[in-house]
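Regression check, MRU case 341:
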Amino acid sequence: MKVIEFKNSELKIIDQSALPDREVFISLREWQDVAESIEKMKVRGAPAIGIAAAYGYCLGFLENKNCGKKKMLEGMLKVKKGLLSSRPTAVNLQWALERMEERLLHSATEYEREDIYAALVDEANSIKKEQLNSDKKISRNGSRYLRRVGKNLNVLTHCNAGAMATGGWGTALGVIKNAYKEGIIRKVYAGETRPRMQGAKITCYELNKKSVEHELICDTAPGYLMYRGMIDAVITGADRIALNGDVANKIGTYQLAALADRNSIPFFIAAPVSSFDFEIDTGEEINVEYRCECEVLKINGMLTAPEGTRAVNPAFDITPADLIHGYVTEKGVIKKPDELQ
Ligand code: MRU
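Current build output:
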């Protein structure tokens, strides 16, 4: 699935905010446009925003490359800060930008400006390629693990942790697609994911393209389905995982984990190592993004509540580590993040 492409100093992304209605690619030539596309969620999903930001950093270099070294480095710091502030929760954004900055600082002492640009593009390409490789390994590790849960499984996923969210194949949805192909999964339930509807609009779009049997459910339905024995496992992605295993992921994830626990259903997180933040001890330290109340108060321009109603719109929540049965990573399935260190 084509999601993010960089060629001739132009970043092309599929506009995820237009799916499933329209499959349109937008062309970005300035780093500010990349930051805006991340902020407006035209590109979204933790690994995908990291990749987009890495290419945005390359475009930022083009803006600064003709300045003297000191000015160029100052300019690149501004580019990094601008891209970083586009969305605060996913650690992948910070991780990718730090990697890009390291490559810049290393190259700036040794190379000519054109070579520095080539080095930066090379680094961004590597981030994208490595993500695809991780996705594939996560899928295989996840399928192997799910096999132990049982056969003909009905699984629930939330938001979108597929190809659109990683620029490649997907983490949680990668596992699901792989396990479906191997006959381990029978059916997928996709939660709508109010207010942005990533589950309905993007996950169902991807499952449809891959002919994976699925049904869309309201965010309010999982408790009943679990109670009726209709869900065998829950698997989602992650935006940031603290050292103790607490996970920031799309709003609604915590209630799924709590309900899964109540109904003795295994709850897994699938995420690359780049989603682990070893600098923070617990989920309490994670900066959860709050988005505009307008996302809750209107659907397709129509009011969802009387004029003047106020809404609060946290985009993510924190799932405590004790509700999580395992973390499916490219290095294997682990029980605690410190196994990766
Ligand atoms: O606000 P979004 O759509 O960027 O949130 C996405 C999620 O919460 C995903 O589950 C997460 O980024 C993992 S994507 C592999």
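Comparison notes: The mean pLDDT is 97. The chain has two domains: 4-131, 140-340. No diff flagged against the previous build.
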